[in-house]
Design a protein that fits this description.
With about 400 residues, this protein is of the alpha/beta class. The protein is built from twelve helices and 17 strands.
């Protein structure tokens, strides 16, 4: 008999009743260190007082009006994002998948508006993840994503991540854009080099393509810059964001230069719920913290410290762990032993992590995590790795 909640997740038998900072408190009475943060969503940790107060205040005033009318909170949030980034304009969404879809529509509309309707195909890269809609899985082409959901949506040409020769070879008169995550998250915490991102910018300029970044997981301060592409000293034409933008509230956005957004006129795109007053109040509250003086620089320092501790961990446990990946507070441990088993062992020991591709344990803690909490996490990692190494020896 099928359960009332559609069984599309292999959920752990664990539930939580409250959270505080970097900790979750289970209905089993245990406290857990949370290095998932809602898969990078709870960027400011759980129950952040500024977010809680803002949500409560706004909830008592106004939740939803629809986009038939002006929403001052959204106008303010959009202007703050424009002032802090490459973008000239922003469209708010309810999720990352919607943000990616909207940005994909913008790409096609741009070329149509500029008199090149035959330009509609987008180049993507292996190991990518852009969401679970039909178009998003068609773009990523991962076997687990697409199995049983064919035929795929046409319009996406995939090349190997990091291979510029292969990328140049697939560009045709129908190519409209290149879409990439500057740091591939689900695919195994793979960091694109600054030179690779700069070369993508050069190719787009050479062929008249739009550069389309997906910073849903790696953006919003997680790398020690507001957005990950800033490390390369270049800017995209369009970008989709989500996760950290709402601090746990469902919120996303796609943003673009004025030129790239030239086709996005009244009636070309919309959403019933997106950009509502409640979401915009929370989005502004998150930005109050993230853009405060010293916050993002602090994330960079914390990330360097955490990565150094993880690198030392790998050296201590070479039969369990292979290498550390990532930067800032988007990190991964590539494992020698099965990463899914290690995730289970860590959870049993009170530490929550999440898997990723290429046998990686993904680490996406709140950006507010401190040195004491990192030390506690490393101690749990040590304990689990020591037990797994001993078990491997015992089993021959």
């Amino acid at each position: 008999m099928i359960p009332a909640v559609m069984p599309t997740y292999a959920r752990a038998d664990l539930a939580f009743e409250r959270g505080e900072g970097a900790y979750l408190f289970g209905t089993d009475g245990r406290r857990y260190m949370d290095l998932i943060a809602g898969i990078g969503v709870c960027a400011l940790g759980h129950s952040h007082p500024h977010l809680v107060q803002t949500l409560q205040d706004q909830a008592a005033k106004l939740w939803h009006t629809s986009n038939l009318y002006r929403i001052p909170g959204g106008e303010r949030l959009a202007q703050r994002l424009v002032d802090a980034t490459f973008a000239d304009t922003v469209f708010f969404t309810n999720s990352g998948a919607e943000a990616w879809e909207g940005a994909t529509k913008l790409v096609r509309k741009y070329h149509y508006t500029r008199g090149n309707p035959k330009r509609w195909r987008i180049i993507t890269v292996t190991s990518s993840f852009h969401g679970r809609t039909l178009a998003a899985i068609s773009a990523a082409k991962g076997e687990k994503l697409i199995k049983g959901f064919g035929p795929l949506v046409d319009g996406f040409d995939q090349v190997a991540w990091g291979n510029m020769n292969e990328l140049r070879a697939v560009i045709t008169d129908e190519t409209a854009a290149i879409c990439i995550e500057p740091i591939i998250g689900e695919g195994g915490i793979k960091v694109s080099s600054p030179e690779y991102l700069r070369e993508l910018r050069r190719v787009c300029d050479e062929f008249g393509l739009l550069l389309f970044f997906d910073e849903i997981q790696c953006g919003y301060g997680r790398t020690g810059k507001f957005f990950a592409h800033e490390w390369a000293g270049i800017t995209p034409d369009v970008m989709c964001i989500a996760k950290g933008i709402g601090g746990g509230f469902p919120l996303g956005a796609f943003m673009a230069t004025e030129e790239a957004a030239c086709g996005m006129t009244p009636g070309t795109h919309g959403s019933t719920y997106a950009g509502n007053p409640l979401a915009m109040a929370v989005g502004n509250a998150v930005l109050d913290v993230v853009l405060a003086d010293g916050f993002i620089a602090g994330v960079e320092r914390t990330g360097q410290h955490f990565k150094a501790e993880l690198e030392a961990l790998v050296k201590r446990h070479p039969t369990v762990l292979q290498e550390v990946r990532g930067t800032g507070l988007i990190l991964g441990l590539k494992c020698v032993q099965p990463s899914d088993e290690i995730v289970v062992d860590l959870r049993a020991a009170g530490l929550l992590t999440v898997g990723a591709g290429e046998n990686v344990v993904r680490i996406l803690p709140p950006l507010t995590i401190g040195a004491a909490e990192i030390a506690e996490a490393i101690a749990i990692f040590d304990k689990v790795c020591t037990a797994r190494a001993a078990k491997a020896v015992a089993n021959g």
